[in-house]
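Ops channel
N.P.: pipeline sanity check, posting one input/output pair.
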């Protein structure tokens, strides 16, 4: 039976001055170092081929897609955006440590949300609905290989919900420019809404 391969790739790195801050909807572009690192990865390793590229609308993702898949015309999907951290956007955990809502949010209370932001439950619901619609679309069109360029939080959340082997979100962490490949088998997907995570990407170059 036909299976569908989806490759998740986390965007390249952004300005180091933003490190440690909650950067969700802030539309930060790739840093010069981020662009250079992606080109180096693309040269030294092998990114998978694809029939279609989906990307978050934020610059750090659209720029990553353009560097890694310059001949593709990516489909931009708003709901592939990172979590909206609201008034916590641009702040560090240290700056928020005395906020009682932040403490609950950090402890995993899915009902708590940043002021003017998105709760963990709302974020998970949004990205899961989006991912299921992508999978259904791939099956309807017979598109057997695709790439999704998005954010670490999106990838970790989706793999924790749908991925086999089962693991917590933090166990699916990845560096910038790296990601995971999933195999969606229609029978398994329709029965249990799960898919097999079978490799990390990019792959070693064939010249190694």
């Amino acid at each position: 039976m036909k299976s569908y391969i989806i490759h998740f790739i986390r965007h390249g790195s952004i300005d180091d001055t933003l490190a440690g801050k909650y950067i969700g909807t802030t539309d930060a572009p790739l840093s010069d170092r981020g662009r250079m690192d992606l080109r180096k990865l693309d040269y030294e390793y092998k990114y998978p081929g694809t029939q279609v590229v989906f990307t978050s609308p934020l610059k750090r993702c659209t720029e990553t897609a353009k560097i890694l898949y310059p001949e593709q015309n990516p489909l931009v999907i708003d709901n592939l955006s990172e979590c909206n951290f609201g008034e916590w956007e641009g702040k560090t955990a240290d700056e928020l440590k005395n906020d009682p809502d932040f403490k609950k949010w950090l402890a995993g209370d899915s009902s708590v949300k940043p002021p003017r932001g998105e709760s963990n439950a709302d974020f998970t619901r949004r990205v899961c609905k989006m991912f299921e619609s992508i999978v259904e679309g791939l099956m309807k069109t017979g598109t057997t290989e695709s790439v999704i360029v998005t954010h670490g939080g999106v990838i970790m959340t989706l793999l924790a919900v749908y991925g086999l082997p089962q693991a917590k979100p933090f166990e699916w962490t990845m560096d910038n420019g790296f990601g995971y490949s999933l195999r969606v088998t229609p029978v398994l997907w329709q029965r249990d809404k799960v898919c097999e995570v079978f490799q990390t990407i990019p792959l070693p170059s064939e010249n190694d």
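N.P.: looks fine end to end. The mean pLDDT is 94.
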